[in-house]
């Protein structure tokens, strides 16, 4: 079972999410929080696998709550579920440690898929948020160079990872084993000095590392 905690300041949103998620055989809603501070207390008490986190909430917002959750319980994954797709919200959320970023207009079935993907350690971002973030990051000037350049094969893996593909999908696309993919991803994390797939994907976009890969 995937144990999910819902953190949102709107009662109707929490009720709607709980009603739908309870219909899924592999998902258990273990609690609800009205703000980030309450989410922290419930994470400590309930130890969920995933927190569905709103961004704008009273007492403590979703970004600050995510930072504190990832600092104390790094194994707990945070999936942002919000109405905001602008860079001022997306980038801070990812930098705080969120494994995924979805908008509240997402179809219920797609939300379930996102929860399962985050549970598998994959990174998920809503297309609208991805587009706006990419446009902003590519406009930045004076970007630092990568300290430890990636090999051509690592560049290929990073390009596939940036598309949100799983290890199995990357292995099939590049005609290698999943074990080889895992090794490449580990090396990529170390060289880019990032902690997870989402941060690696954002780093790749920000520094143009996927441009021309596979050539």
From TrEMBL:
GO molecular function: DNA binding
Limits of the Response regulatory domain: 3-119
Residues bearing PTM 4-aspartylphosphate: 54
Keywords recorded for this protein, A-Z: DNA-binding, Phosphoprotein, Transcription, Transcription regulation
GO BP term (any one): phosphorelay signal transduction system
InterPro entries the record matches: CheY-like_superfamily, NreC/VraR/RcsB-like_REC, Sig_transdc_resp-reg_C-effctor, Sig_transdc_resp-reg_receiver, Tscrpt_reg_LuxR_C, WalR-like
Pfam families, per database record: GerE (PF00196), Response_reg (PF00072)
Residue ranges occupied by any HTH luxR-type domain in the UniProt entry: 143-208
Highest taxon of the lineage: Bacteria
Stated name of the protein: Response regulator transcription factor
Organism, as annotated: Ureibacillus terrenus
């Amino acid at each position: 079972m995937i144990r999910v905690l819902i953190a949102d300041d709107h009662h109707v949103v929490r009720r709607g999410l709980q009603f739908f998620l309870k219909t899924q055989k592999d998902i258990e809603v273990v609690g609800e929080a009205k703000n980030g501070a309450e989410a922290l207390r419930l994470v400590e008490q309930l130890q969920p696998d995933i927190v569905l986190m709103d961004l704008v909430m009273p007492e403590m917002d979703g970004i600050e709550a995510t930072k504190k959750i990832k600092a104390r319980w790094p194994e707990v994954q945070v999936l942002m579920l919000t109405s905001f797709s602008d860079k001022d919200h997306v980038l801070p959320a990812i930098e705080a440690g969120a494994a995924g970023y979805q908008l509240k207009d997402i179809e219920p079935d797609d939300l379930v898929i996102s929860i399962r993907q985050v549970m598998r350690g994959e990174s998920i971002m809503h297309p609208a948020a991805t587009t706006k973030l990419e446009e902003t990051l590519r406009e930045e000037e004076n970007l630092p160079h990568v300290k430890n350049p990636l090999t051509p094969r690592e560049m290929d893996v990073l390009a596939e990872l940036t598309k949100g593909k799983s290890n199995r999908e990357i292995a099939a696309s590049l005609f290698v084993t999943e074990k080889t993919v895992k090794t490449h991803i580990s090396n990529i994390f170390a060289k880019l000095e990032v902690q997870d797939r989402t941060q690696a994907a954002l780093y790749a976009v920000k520094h143009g590392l996927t441009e021309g890969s596979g050539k």
